[in-house]
Structures are given as C-alpha cells and as structure tokens.
Specification:
Layout (H helix, E strand, L loop, with lengths): L2 H13 L8 E4 L11 E6 L3 E6 L8 H13 L8 H5 L6 H27 L10
Parallel strand pairs: 1-3
Antiparallel strand pairs: 2-3
Helix pairs in contact: 2-4
C-alpha cells in the first residue's frame, strides 16, 4: 500500500472518534512542510483540508506519528477562530495587528496541542510501512 493511501486510510479511521466525520482530509505528498513543522494542515471552506508531512515523519515511532496526525486534525475544530482575523479593527497599525494575530495563533496551537495530547493515546496507532 502506498504511503498516501495508508495515511488517507488512517485519517479516515481517526476522524470519527475526533468528531470530524463530516470533514474530508487528504494527505498531499506533493506539499512541502516548513522546516520547523513535522506536518501542516491547510484548511479550506466546506470542511476540507490538505495535509503535508515532513520527510522525517516516516522514521519516527508510531506513537509520535499518531500524535502529529491527531494534532493536525484537531486544528479543524479551531478553524472558525480564523474568522476573528477578519474582525480585527483595521484602524490598528500593521504592527499591532501582527501581534494580535500572533497571540491568536499561539493560543490556537496551545489549545490544539493540549487536546491532541488528551486524545491521541485513545486512538489506534498507525501502521505505515517504511
């Protein structure tokens, strides 16, 4: 089984227990992660999202792989927070807006990581071949 198919099947398997059954997640091997991230999710309207995974992911233990994928899917629960950005007052300077956006991003990451740590151990481990 290809890595893409294995990841997509695993995402489908865990999205129900994560209360994300109405979402469509797709692993995109053609997408590149930024250097500081193990994986990245790009969320679109209509409950769809693409997932990028760094090359090192495949060498990590399955417990770490599970934690990373659960973390990325948990971002879907916080997607509506991004609407706050459009509500930020435009009369602030670009510097103030950047700080406000940074605070929102940091708060989301903290909430997502906490939720993922609580949930990951309750989900099955992935079975990806090397």
């Amino acid at each position: 089984m290809s890595q893409k198919r294995a990841v997509d099947r695993y995402l489908k398997r865990i999205q129900g227990p994560l209360l994300l059954a109405d979402w469509s997640f797709c692993y995109r091997p053609d997408l590149v992660c930024s250097l500081e991230n193990a994986a990245e999710i790009q969320i679109y309207e209509g409950h769809t999202a693409d997932l990028a995974i760094c090359p090192e992911f495949w060498d990590w233990p399955t417990t770490k792989q599970r934690a990373i994928l659960v973390h990325e899917l948990c971002h879907a629960h916080f997607d509506r927070l991004r609407a706050i950005d459009s509500l930020l007052p435009r009369h602030h300077s670009p510097e103030v807006l950047a700080v406000l956006r940074g605070v929102l991003i940091e708060a989301e990451e903290h909430a997502v990581e906490t939720m993922a740590r609580l949930l990951a151990s309750r989900l099955p481990l992935p079975k990806f071949g090397k």
